[in-house]
Each structure stands twice: as C-alpha cells, then as structure tokens.
Design a protein that fits this description.
The complex is a heterotrimer of chains A (about 800), B (about 300) and C (about 160). Chain A is of the alpha+beta class and about 800 residues long. Chain A is about 25% helix and about 25% strand. Chain A has three domains: about 180 residues, Aldehyde oxidase/xanthine dehydrogenase, a/b hammerhead (Aldehyde Oxidoreductase, domain 3, Alpha-Beta Complex); about 250 residues, Aldehyde oxidase/xanthine dehydrogenase, molybdopterin binding domain (Aldehyde Oxidoreductase, domain 4); about 170 residues, 2-Layer Sandwich (Aldehyde Oxidoreductase, domain 4), CATH 3.30.365.10. Chain A contains 19 helices and 29 strands. By secondary structure, chain B is of the alpha+beta class. In chain B, the strands form four sheets. Chain B has a five-stranded antiparallel sheet. Chain B has a four-stranded antiparallel sheet with strand order 11-12-13-14, sandwiched between helices. Chain B has a three-stranded parallel sheet with strand order 1-3-2, with helices on one face. In chain B, helix 11 packs across helix 12. Chain B is globular. Chain C has about 160 residues and is of the alpha+beta class. Chain C has two domains: about 80 residues, Roll (Ubiquitin-like (UB roll)), CATH 3.10.20.30; about 70 residues, Orthogonal Bundle (DNA polymerase, domain 1), CATH 1.10.150. Chains in contact: A-B, A-C, B-C. Chains A and C meet through helix 1 and helix 17 of A and helix 2, helix 3 and helix 5 of C.
C-alpha cells in the first residue's frame, strides 16, 4: 500500500456534500408529496369517546382523514414489541392511531393528509376529539404505589421485574456479605429524564408504484432493514416489493432505532390507498411529546466494603420509568443493571429492577442507553466509600479495578444481547494513570486551596465506565469491484453522522490496496443490502467494519487468483498496491484491478473495449474447466458477515474541574479531560468527534436538560426554549487521550466509540460539584436553583 | 408547527398601517422583527386574523441620539441600536442590555420597540425603559391629537385624516405580563430612552440558564453622583421579578455617600424585599429572589464604578 | 376557500427567483419547498436552533422567523450560495478540515452565521467566536471542532486575501 489508511485522520468524504447544501435529508425529498399531520392527544390519560372531523372537511386542500377505525387488518393491531424478554411479563405497545384510550400527551389519534403541511395543520385544528379524562400516573414512585393503572391489565403498573445476583466467591449471598462487611452505606440516587433530540426529527416519505405494485419508503431511521420487514408485515406486502432507504439522517442518538413508528406504517399505507406520494416531517413539538425519552430512574443502594474501600457486596434496587409503552422491551434497565459494575471486581452483586408504566412519553434507548444511570450509581458509590474512609477517590477505584492480566473477565451476569457478560480486554490502571496526569489530579488540592484563598470554589470529579459495544447478532458487507476499477461497498446499517462513508472506505481501501477515492460506500439502503440489524449500541464500526473487512478479504483472494492466472504467477506472490495487482518485488508484472474485474466476468457481449478482453473469443486460459468454475461466481465481488460470539467492551475515564459561584450558585466547567479506550482506531479524528459530542450531551444531561412533567402529565418544556440543550457557550473544551487495547474478538481489533462520551458525565459533574461544595449530590441533573436549595438545606 | 392563515397587509406608509389597524382593531397584530410573534404563530398560540407588516415603513427605521436621549424607531433592529456609537454614548445602558438580548442572529431581526410592546417581564429592554423613565410613542387614527413637536422619528400626518399620537411613560406602558398600554388600532412608532445624566453610570447584570436565554433574574442599575462624587440617586429595574419590570428606588439605602462606603447591601435587601418572582421549571421563587439581591448589589457597584470613571 | 397568495421576487444566491406564496409562508419553507433550495434546514421553527439561518441582505437571520412575503425584493444567500462555483468557501473548507460537522443538519446555519461573522470580524477572539455562534445548536460535535473551524477559516481567509 502506498498510503496507510486504517488509523489515519482521513477527512470525511460526506463533508463536501453536506457543506454545500447537497445533503438529502428526509424532508428534502418528495417536493411534490402530500403532507401528513397528526391530531395528538392533549391529555396524558383519557378515553376517546368520539372524534368529529366534520369541521375539517371543508378545508381547501384536504385529501384524507384517518382514525383507528379506518385501519385494516394488522395495522389495527398494536405495534410490535421489538425485544421480548421473559422478565417483561406485561409488555405493552401502542396502536398506530389511538384505539379508544390515550396514555400520554402526544399520542397520535388522527392522521390528516393534505396538499401541504400548513393545510394539514389547519385541518387538524378543526378536528374535535371528545375525551373522558382519567387520572394520570406521573412519576415512577407514584406509579409504583398508585391504585390508578396506566394499562388496566397491568397490576401495580409494573411491566417487568428482574433480578440478577452474583454471589461472593465463597458462595455467600450479597445481603449476608453486606451484613458482615466492616463498613456499610445505604443511600438513594435519582436521575431525571432527557432525550436524544437530534436536530432533524423523525420523518417518513412513502412512494407507491401502482404499476409495479411496489413500495419505496424513505425514513429518517437508524434501521432501514428492520423498518422494511415491519412495513411488509404490517401492510401484507411481499418483502421484495418493499424497499426502505435511510437518506442523510440529521442525528439519531438512539431515538430512531425504534421502529416501526406509527408514521412508518401509516404513511406507506396512505400512499398505497391514495396512490400518491405522502410525506410526514416531524416538527419539534411532536418530537418532544411523541417520540421517546430516557434516563429517569430511582436507585436504592446498599454497599459493604473493607477498610481499603474494596467493595465486598453491592445491592442495587432500581425503579425504572418506562413511560406509557415498552416497544423496545427492557433493554435500558437491563443495560443499567449489567453495566453497573463497570471496571470493578465487585465481591458480590445483586441488582433488581422494576420497570414501571407512567402516563408519559415512552422510554427507549438514548445514547448511553441506561449506562449513564449505571455509572452514576457506581461512581457515586465509589465517592461515598472514599468519603466514608477518608481516602482519595482514585485510590478507592484503583483497589477495585479488574487488572490487565485478568481478561477475559466474566462479570457473572447476562448482558443485553442475552449472552454472558465477559470483558474482552482493557487496562484500567493505565487509564487512570493517564487521566490523573491529564487533569493534574495530584496537584489539584493545592489549586483548590489557592482558589479558596481568592474566595472561589472549585472542585474536581472523576467517573469511570466500561461500555459493552458492538453487540450482535450480526452485520454484513458487500464489496464489488467494477470494470472501471471502482470499489462499491455497501452495508445494511445506517448512518447518522458517524462518518461511515469515510471509515468504511478506509477499511476497504486498506484491505484491497486501492486509493481511497476509488471506494464508495452506501449504508442503510435495502436495495443494496437487505440483511442488517441497525446502528445503535456503538456497534457500527465493530460490526459492519469487520464484515466489510471480511468481504474485502474474499474479494482480494479472488482478485489474486484471477490475476495469478493472467500473470502466470503464484497468487501467494501477489499483492495489490494502488489498485494494481503485481508480483511482489517485480515491477512490470502487474495488472490493474479493473482488468481483473473484467476477467472475473466471462462475457459473450462486449459493452466496451475493456470488456472485450473477457469475451469468448479473447482467449480463455483453459478449455478444461467451464468459464465460471464450479463453486465460483461471475464478478469481482464478495459478501460476508460478522457475527461475534459476544460484545466488545470499550472503557474510559473522565475527570472535570468545576467552579461554583458562592453567591449565584452557577456551575461552570473549567476543564474536562477524557481518557478513552475503544481498541484500534480506524479514524482518530472521527473518534475524537464522537467523544466531544458525547461529552456535550452529557453536560446537557448533567446541568441543563430534563423533561419536566407536571402532575397532569403535561410536558412543560416541550420546546428548545425550555429544554435547555447546551450551546457552544455552555460546553467545555474537552482534552482527550487515547489508550488502545485491541479487542481480541474481531479481525480489526476495534471496539465501539459512539456512545462513550456521554456515559460518565453526570457522575463526573456530580463528583466535582460535591467536591467544590462539600454537599452530597445524589440527584442529577443539577441546576443553580437546586444547588442553592441544597446549600440552604445544608446550612 | 406552521402558522395559521391570516390576511397579510403590507402598508407602504404609517398612515396606511394605521388605517388597517383602525379597521381591524383587535383582530390585527403588528409584525415588525417577528422574533417573538412568529414563534407564537408557528406554535399556533396566537391566531390574529390580520397581520400588519410594518417592515416596509422605512421612516420608522431610525436611531436618533440627541442630547436629551435616544429615540428609536419601530423598525430599528436590536443589532443596529447595539452598534450605534451615538446611542451608546448618549445612553450606555442600551448597549449593555442589548448584548444580553437573545443571540446575535436574533438581534439582527428583532426590534427594540417590538420587544417593548411584547412586554415580557423576563426581557431586558422593558426594564431599561422603566429604569430610565423612557416612553413609548403610540399613534392611531382619529382623535384630535397631533405629533409632539421636535421629534424626528414620527409618522407624517397624512392628508385628509386625523391622527392621535401619545407618549406613554414606561411606568404606565407595562401593564402586565405580555400586556402593554398599546391598544387595538394603535401602532408603537418609536421609543425614547433618556440620556445618561452627568456623573452617572449604568450596568446590567443577569443570570440565565444558557447564554442568551431569558434571565432567571436580571437587574439594570443607574447610579448618579453629585459634584463631590457622592450618591444622589440610585435605582434598579429588575427582570423576572414580577408581572412587569420592577423599579426600585434605593437612594436612601445607598446613602448620600461615596460609592466606596455606600450601603449596597442594604440596597440589595430592599430590592429583594420588593421582588415578587415566581417559581417556574428553571428556578424557584426563593432562588430568584436571592439572585435579584446578589445581582442588584453587583449591578449597583458596577454602575457606581462607571459613574466614577465617566 | 383558497388562500390568497402574494407574488414575490427574491434574489437568491444572485439569481432572481419568483414565487407565489400565502402570507404565512415561512421564508424557510419558501426556500426549501417553493424554490427547491433544501440546503437550509428546519430544526425547531421557534427560532432557537439556528439550523435555518440564512443571510438576508448579508446579515444572518432565522428564516423560520421570517415570512417570505416580508422580504420580497431582498437578497438572500443560502448555503448553496456560499461556494465559488465548485470551490468551497474558506469557511466550508475549514469545517471539512477541522471535522466541524457530523450529521451535517445544523451545518448550513453555522456556515451562514460564521460567514457573516468573519466578514465583519476577520480575526475574532475565542470569546467572540463563542458569542458569534452562540445562537446555533449542534447535537453532534460538542462545538469544539466548530470553534476550531472558525479560527481556521479566519486563517485561510487571511492567507488567501
């Protein structure tokens, strides 16, 4: 290879398009499509008595109005429960349009199709829905105690209850261990709701081709293949007659992995029914009240530990707020409960969660997906142990770390993929050493003293995490070299800004020995690749990256075989450099990959001069075998899949220095440091970008963002005015250092990086504010007003 | 989130605008910068039958700094006033406050008079107008009145029609949250911010959740010194401390003393006592009251420093 | 009853464009749907996110908080008009060089805002950069590389001037 591509900060190939306005996001498509809008419930909990659409019928430009009663067959059933689990005894999902009951503000009740969105909203405003109000259930503790039920057939509002326990090495159960421990602490922690809030909301654009009886659906989704299967199933269409494409997607962060959204089945249905193109573009208010939230948990912790701070027993009980429905199963609380031990050897561990229904927007994964809560719990626990024993907070962590020689390390739990939770690799002591050096941990006490002398309050905080990334079951890659020498790569999972077109091209170019410019990558288009799972859980690089590498290796092997034939050489002596197959060390004996591609496809008809070389009178190499030998296929292409035995485990440690204003209680992050280990880096620039963005979302979750529901189940801050996503002025500069412990589980030795940045931030900021203030911080996010109240209560 | 339909009017003159406003009365809304009104329309929280777009009335675009104060026409954008050196020289509090209004891009479009008429008690400019004792000029069709003399940003008197112009002092202009004295049929044509008196200083301090957000609490301060550099007058106006901008005169608390020994803390307590903040999702009333005191002291000290330096 | 429309003329990226729009048509929708310039994005429609920022007579404004009919006769520059033919502008190149974008949805708003900022202030301080982009939300980048890109764009502009 002339250029090293894997591991280089190659500039993104997506950018020229996106920087010049030539990106194509969902709402940029279908200029002539009809527009859909929805009447959504203004009430958190109500029975629908009647829907009167008569006043809307006169609206100029109205095309159609649909309610649940109009829905046929399988569309009239509840949407699928995507991830069933034995502990989810009472899973419930919504109807595409509310049937007779609404369970949260924002639930869709009526779909209107009109000439444009303005007109559709005019019609919506004229539709009268008669509701009989029911008492709403708001707040996870109220839900757990209330006699009022969100779903009449879910007693106690408990959708799922799950326990996992890892006894001590001596076989004692956790409670016994804690009883007998030299030190014991018990406390409660709270973490509030936030949400993905990508700047592009969801959206669906459906085109029905009546001549071909086929459907093409564009969706701003994190999983086009799964949307395709759901649409085909719900509409009763043969799978080959449905294609789903994720165009440029303006951020996902988890919310767009859920599918099918009501709109993803309703829009295609309406397009078929009306034989017109129909498009729905979610607006910001809709996104707040009718997509999904995450994070809200109440955690009860008991921990027993020795004089060094070694955790002997940890018992955590979690109340998880699941909102009104569980379309994505109980993945979020499972992740919280299994990722909670982090980088530590917990002597014995028992975790129990109840997933509870409330009359609020449903809860599905948001970047981090249960891990920020887990890390908040574990790291607050570590800080409390340090505080109790008068030890340095990093010393307590260090004494509990899994050591580098102990990998693979089995935590004894069952992870979110249904497989044993076994860490593949890592070096936590080194990570901590790097972090302490980066932030200046050991010199901070002196710094703090100097600040105090100036009347300033500063504090330092730390948070460590381990993140299961690259979960299965599989992804695939297809690589085709065409006779012009171009390399076309496709994979089924989608992209929402992670730079897959660049990173996957780097992998393919490096594997095949071709210039990067010759490689093009398509993601999320079922016309190109039909089998995939989706982009979530920091899995795209691990899963599709490795699948593409494996597919490239197949292509390479075939290319060398064909070239060896043509060059009359031994394939083992050949290599590919800059798109030329040549004999190693023998200049001149070479054949372009383009020609190999020509030769790979025996032709009867020549479509150009180059192709003529592969036609039947051009001179076959052997008349002893058929043109396409047995077991071979025409074309220089390959397809392969990567399906790992289990997840990889990335890790990281963050530290922050904060300043709190002694009078106004404003909280400012002065420094933020990250040590990050995601194994081998494909493109360090992209990985750093993922960390920066993750930290910024974490800062939002720690200091600014929350979903504020009142007692009536009204979301009081359903706008960017009041849901305080941070601007540039609120986000600190992030200092990063990388540690690379390759994963032994996959060919490229990589782990995922997408979610990492966000995971420990609330824990870190809580730790730092606590250090600055000397007041226990056990509820996040924290606002200046809340810090002020804590100060009052403490004084 | 698309606005509901309305009849759109694009008058070419103030007279034409007043005619539409007179004809449509309460059904009409005036559109200037639109930075507060259009979000409300997009969310369908407002649905005026008629929108009177005054963006073509270039005669209302002026910013005129005179020795006695700054008169700002209804079409003058925040950014324009913020950049105006004569305006800053005549009344520095304008620039100090405008830098805290939303974000630069919003200030490129939003108008000073528009934000006064919007009368949000969390907004900076109503507090500034209140503190300085400024006024808003309202014009409407009918009645016997004529424009006050000697004012350059004023509607022309159209032929064949009578016009009433009234100057409403800030103290009477803000009548409640999002409510002002501008009635149906009236157009706010300009606002007047009195000039900074000699030996005086101003400051604006606020705490917002994010930079550019509406303040959790904010305080504008004006301190005037005498020839001996003792305080002769001190006052603050607070945002987010009640239904309208809260003006608190604190000359007595400060004492007729040099700033170095003034009773700032007592003044701050007096402001706190008068504040009537409310709880909302971002902060408790108690915290806001505390902030008002902290910010009042900081703003008064800053203003006094300005007065000494000036 | 059909809604009344107004005939307007805009000079968009140097080209005279005409459209018939209802009074309530937002400039963002007019650009995107009436004129087919979909590079301007819509992220909140209440003026907070800044995705829809375009240049109106050279000054950055929220196109979602502007009615198309209000700016009849004015000049608009959108992200499609920032490059010089096939050559990206210094601001666009700096964003690519510094990895100042991920999903790219907020990017057109940032590019318009920064283009005007650097025209008025070719060598901004760190604080001025933060203030200048403080009205634009980005959910992907954490802003760090955007800030870096603004400084880099200033450098490129200085080198090329």
């Amino acid at each position: 290879m002339t250029t090293k591509l894997f591991g280089e900060p190659v500039r993104r190939r997506e950018d020229p398009r996106l920087l010049t306005g030539r990106g194509r996001y969902l709402d940029d498509l279908g200029r002539d499509a009809l527009a859909a809008a929805f009447v959504r419930s203004p009430h958190a909990h109500a029975v629908i008595r009647d829907i009167d659409v008569s006043a809307a019928l006169d609206v100029d430009g109205l095309v159609a109005i649909y309610t649940w009663e109009d829905l046929p067959d399988r569309l009239a059933e509840p949407l699928p429960l995507l991830i069933p689990h034995p502990a989810l005894t009472h899973g419930r999902t919504a109807y595409p349009l509310a049937r007779d009951r609404v369970r949260h503000v924002g639930e869709p009740v009526v779909m209107v199709v009109a000439r444009d969105r303005y007109v559709a909203e005019d019609a919506c405003a004229l539709i009268r829905v008669d509701y009989e109000l029911l008492k709403p259930v708001v707040g996870v503790e109220e839900a757990a105690q209330s006699a009022q039920l969100v779903h009449d057939d879910v007693p106690g509002n408990v959708g799922a209850h799950m326990v996992q326990e890892v006894p001590s090495a001596g076989g004692l159960d956790v409670r016994e261990v804690i009883e007998d421990a030299p030190h014991t602490l018990a406390f409660r922690l709270d973490i509030e709701r936030s949400a993905s809030t990508p700047l592009e909301g969801r959206g669906v654009y459906a085109r029905w081709d009546a001549d071909d009886s086929s459907l093409r659906v564009y969706s701003s989704t994190q999983t086009s293949t799964s949307v395709r299967m759901a649409v085909a199933a719900k509409l009763g269409l043969p799978l080959p007659k449905v294609e789903v494409i994720a165009p440029d997607v303006g951020g996902g962060f988890g919310v767009k992995i859920v599918h099918p959204w009501p709109e993803e089945v309703l829009l295609p249905w309406a397009a078929m029914l009306l034989d017109r193109e129909v498009k729905w573009t979610e607006d910001r208010r809709e996104h707040f009240v009718s997509s999904a939230h995450e994070r809200a948990q109440v955690q009860f912790v008991r921990v027993g530990f020795d004089d060094d701070g070694r955790v002997l027993g940890l018992e955590v009980s979690i109340l998880h707020d699941h909102g009104a429905y569980t379309p994505y199963g109980i993945i979020v609380p499972i992740i919280t409960s299994t990722q909670l031990p982090g980088p530590y050897k917990i002597g014995s561990y028992r975790v129990e969660f109840s997933s509870v229904y409330t009359n609020t927007v449903q809860v599905t994964p948001y970047r981090g997906a249960g891990r920020p809560q887990a890390v908040f719990c574990m790291e607050r626990t570590m800080d409390r142990i340090a505080d109790h024993l008068g030890l340095d907070r990093t010393a307590v962590r260090a004494v509990n770390f899994i050591q580098p020689e102990e990998f693979p390390y089995d935590q004894g739990l069952i992870f979110q993929d249904g497989r044993p939770l076994i860490y593949d690799s890592g070096d936590y002591p080194e990570s901590l050493r790097m972090l302490k050096e980066l932030i200046g941990w050991d010199s901070f006490p002196a710094e703090k003293e100097r600040a105090a002398a100036e009347g300033r309050r500063i504090g330092i905080g730390i948070g460590c995490y381990v993140e299961g990334t690259g979960v299965g079951p599989y992804e695939g890659g297809h690589v085709q070299v065409t006779s012009d020498g171009r390399v076309h790569v496709s994979t089924g999972l989608t992209s929402q800004g992670q730079g897959h077109e660049t990173a996957f091209a780097q992998i393919a170019a490096a594997e095949l020995g071709v210039p990067l410019e010759r490689v093009s990558v398509v993601t999320g288009d079922t016309r190109r690749f039909g089998y995939a799972v989706g982009t979530f859980a920091s899995r795209a690089a691990v899963m599709s990256g490795n699948a593409i590498a494996l597919a490239c290796r197949k292509v390479r092997e075939k290319a060398l075989r064909i070239a060896a034939d043509a060059l009359e050489a031994d394939p083992r002596d050949l290599e590919i450099t800059d798109g030329m197959v040549h004999v190693a060390g023998t200049p001149g004996a070479a054949i372009p990959l383009a020609t190999v591609a020509v030769l790979s496809n025996p032709l009867r008809y020549a479509f150009d001069e180059e192709a003529a070389r592969a036609t039947q009178f051009a001179g076959a190499s052997s008349f002893d075998k058929p043109p396409v030998p047995e077991g071979d296929e025409p074309g220089l292409e390959g397809r392969d899949y990567y399906s790992p035995i289990r997840s990889t485990f990335a890790s990281g440690m963050h530290a922050a220095i904060v300043e709190t204003d002694p009078l106004t209680a404003e909280i400012r992050i002065l420094r933020y440091a990250v040590v990050h280990d995601c194994g081998n880096l494909i493109n360090p620039m992209i990985v750093e970008g993922q960390i920066h963005g993750g930290v910024a979302q974490g800062v939002g979750g720690a200091l600014y963002e929350r979903m504020v529901y009142d007692g009536h189940g009204q979301l009081l801050n359903a706008s960017f005015m009041d849901f305080l996503m941070p601007y540039a002025t609120e986000v600190p500069h992030v200092e990063t250092a990388h540690l690379q412990t390759p994963s032994p589980l996959n060919p490229l030795g990589i782990k995922g990086a997408g979610e990492a940045g966000v995971i420990p931030v609330s824990a870190v900021i809580a730790s730092a504010v606590e250090d600055a203030e000397g007041i226990a911080i056990d509820k996040m996010p924290i606002s200046p007003s809340e810090l002020f109240d804590l100060r009052r209560a403490a004084s | 989130m698309k606005p509901p339909p309305f009849d759109y009017h694009a008058p070419r003159s103030v007279a034409e605008a007043l005619d539409v406003l007179a004809a449509e009365g309460e059904r009409a809304k005036v559109l200037a910068g639109g930075q507060s009104l259009i979000p409300l329309l997009n969310m369908r929280l407002a649905a005026p039958g008629h929108l009177v777009d005054i963006n073509r009335l270039t005669e209302l675009a002026g910013v005129e700094a005179e020795p006695d104060g700054v008169r700002i026409g209804a079409l003058a954008r925040h950014a324009e006033v913020e950049r105006s050196e004569p305006a800053a020289a005549a009344q520095p509090l304008l620039r100090q406050a405008l830098r805290l209004v939303a974000h630069p891009v919003v200030r490129n479009r939003g108008t000073v008079v528009g934000s006064l008429v919007h009368a949000d008690p969390a907004a900076e400019l109503p507090a500034v107008l209140t503190l300085l004792g400024g006024s808003v000029r309202l014009a409407r069709r009918g009645g016997p009145g004529t424009p006050a003399a000697g004012v350059s940003v004023s509607p022309e008197v159209p032929a064949g029609g009578s016009l009433t112009v009234r100057d409403v002092p800030a103290g009477d202009f803000f009548t409640g949250p999002l409510e002002s004295a501008a009635g149906p049929g009236e157009l706010a044509v300009s606002a007047f911010f009195p000039a900074l008196p000699p030996r005086s200083g101003t400051a604006f301090r606020e705490v917002a959740r994010r930079h550019g957000d509406y303040a959790l609490a904010g305080v504008a301060a004006l301190v005037v010194l005498d020839d001996d550099l003792r305080i002769t007058s001190a006052a603050v106006a607070c945002v987010s401390a009640g239904p309208v901008p809260l003006l608190v005169e604190v000359t007595g608390e400060c004492g007729h003393r040099p700033p170095a020994s003034a009773g700032w803390a007592g003044a701050a307590r007096a402001v706190q006592d008068r504040a009537e903040p409310e709880d909302d999702i971002h902060a408790t009333a108690g915290y806001r009251r505390h902030l008002v005191g902290v910010l009042a002291e900081r703003a008064l000290r800053d203003a006094a420093r300005e007065a000494l330096n000036g | 009853m059909a809604e009344r429309t107004h005939d307007i003329t805009l000079v968009v990226n140097g080209t005279v464009r005409r459209a018939a729009v209802p009074g309530r048509r937002l400039l963002s929708d007019c650009l995107r749907h009436d004129l087919g310039l979909t590079g301007t994005h819509v992220g909140c429609e209440h003026g907070v996110c800044g995705c829809c920022t375009v240049l109106l007579d050279g000054e950055p404004v929220r196109s979602c908080l502007t009615f198309a009919v209000t700016v009849d006769g004015h000049e608009i520059t959108t992200v499609e008009g920032l490059a010089d033919g096939e050559r990206m502008s210094p601001v666009q190149r700096a964003f690519a060089e510094c990895h100042g974008l991920q999903c790219g949805f907020c990017t057109p708003g940032f590019l318009c805002t920064v283009t005007a900022m650097l025209r008025d202030n070719p060598v901004p301080t760190e604080e001025e950069v933060l203030e200048g982009i403080s009205g634009n939300l980005c959910r992907c980048t954490g802003y760090q590389n955007i800030v870096k890109a603004v400084h880099r764009a200033a450098e490129i502009m200085a080198e090329e001037s």
